[in-house]
Amino acid sequence: MTTPFNLETHVQFLKSVGPARARSLDRLGITTVGDLLTHYPRRYFDRSATVPIGRARPGTEVTVLGEVLTSGDRRTRTGGSLLTVSLGDDSGVLFCIWFNQKYLKNQFRPGRKVMASGLVQRHQGRLQLAHPDFEILDDPSDMAGAEGAPAGLHTGRLVPVYGLTAGVGQHWLRALVHQSLEKLADQTPEILPPEIARRRALPSRAQALRDIHFPADQRALHEARRRLVYEELFTVQLLMALRREHDHRQAGLKLEKPGDLTRRLVESLPFPLTRAQRRVSADILTDLRSGRAMHRLLQGDVGSGKTLVALIAALFVVEQGYQAVVMAPTEVLALQHGVVMTRLCAPLGITVETLTGSTPAARRRAVLNAAAAGECDLLVGTHAVLESDVRLPKLALAVVDEQHRFGVKQRGKTAATEQGAAHVLVMSATPIPRSLALTLYGDLDLSLIDEMPVGRIPIKTILARDGDEEAMWEECRGEVARGRQVYVIYPVIEETEGQDLKAATVECERMRHEVFPGTRVELLHGRMKSKEKQAVMDAFTSGEAPVLVATTVVEVGVDVPNATAMVIHNPERFGLAQLHQLRGRIGRGKDASRCWLLCDRFLSEETWERVKFFSEHADGFALAEEDLRLRGPGDAWGVRQHGTPGFKLANPVRDAELARECRDDVEALLKSDPALSGPQGKQLREELARAWAAAVPFMAG
To answer: pTM, whole model, 2 decimals?
Structure first.
């Protein structure tokens, strides 16, 4: 019996894919035909309209065909590399540059024909393309296995350009996608209900997949993208709506009116709660008294006071004889939460314990025993609090801080309690525009702290280049002389983590001996042991170490009010939201603060504009909108919840109108068929359960 060919077929069953190539495809996240067909093109070469190099103009997107004249790389000031390739044709010369991608050099041997596509920029009097998409047109290794491709697949049309990895070339991958589409024909299962597809004038899924890979023209490409974006948005929002409905049906512990503890905590604070904090606290307390399980997302910009709101909620359940847990994504943040909450709770007679992966065995046993006996009122920790030996028999509230860093399964596990469904409050300091929040977190009620504590002084952000560095360090030394503290941030990028970590270490030594001689300078990075991290943070928090050289391990939640200065090396290597989190580590006290962005000399115009945008904006939501526009939700923050559909094409900010249409359609569908039990609803439910059981496990039943 012949095995049917469908989206679940393993790619190794395709012609020209052997075990080695299957392993290469796996590095791209491609194991099935369905994975292959949703590995969408990054862009397209318009090979029906290439431009002579001499006609390329700054500010325009072009595709050029030229011959490699020269190729060379050199070190940059910050220890990276700059690869420069010159392409020429009869009309002129154009330069292509890549930062930190020297491995590409061997592909650009003089004499080779190359097609490159990108935005033309003028830099130091010459025209260049920064990080262009390119294709080597006469690379025999790229053609291997593509001999079955039809004529015209690689030229004379809109040609797809895919993300690649070692062992996978453009020609071969195009041929593989074409082969899969031909074998599938029109057997691609539909997800959207036919009535919705007709009303929204969307092409079939099979047609959309053909046209997203091999469009006949720009109109066909536009319609294909619209259909597939709509499908992504529809799927996510339908799953969120189903999960929201399921969660709302869950009974929760019904608590009474606020008592003495919450009042005493608020009265003990040296400052009043903001109106926003009071409003959000009221939302949460209403949920806790409603009789249904709370599932609420609390958003607030950096330093807006979310943690205090979470503590008020925790005390509300503790004073009624229950337990609460607060989960943070890093040990540094968990330990800090533990210290702060212990300080605030001790005068109230509340027992706070902290548990992380590196808690010593004897201490861990003591904490576990106290938790199981109900003697621990509030447990603070990392994902270690989710381990099977952690028992909280009276758990009534689970708070998940920086929730997008945890998977859905982890988040759901915090709601498991021996008494039934606990209340869940998830928090995020990553500003998420409402259009994205309604799409990604449609299963949660939303609360927003949109007001900063009284007396906060805006942080001054300064762009700096080589010539400004000495003056910058002089100002930082002045802050230290006045008894204040300084962060020096160095980037760690995944692909070159070892090299960058070494650079941070070297930078720390330079700070100790050249920039801040006679001052205690400490280093903090993610590879240090927990005890070392805590010792460094204790020294910085107490003021014993005035200068901290750190990687992004300090990005979230670290609170040192005495820190008034920050220097961020290579800000172009961070996303805007990440820069905003880092900058939020200063400006938390009564003194004015400054943040310097020390930029590489060789930034493209686009990158420079992005960093400049950050320096001019302090509002996290404005920065989040821009980050989404530039990079998309997944790339920008990783806010996609693991175990739910992500976005490969959709961008809820750019596609806000389609997202609104999807919300309307989902609402109408569930109004007419709430349980998805009708003929079309049942088919849709089965497809969702098959594909996304991890996101909505209750559907599998």
So the answer is: 0.68
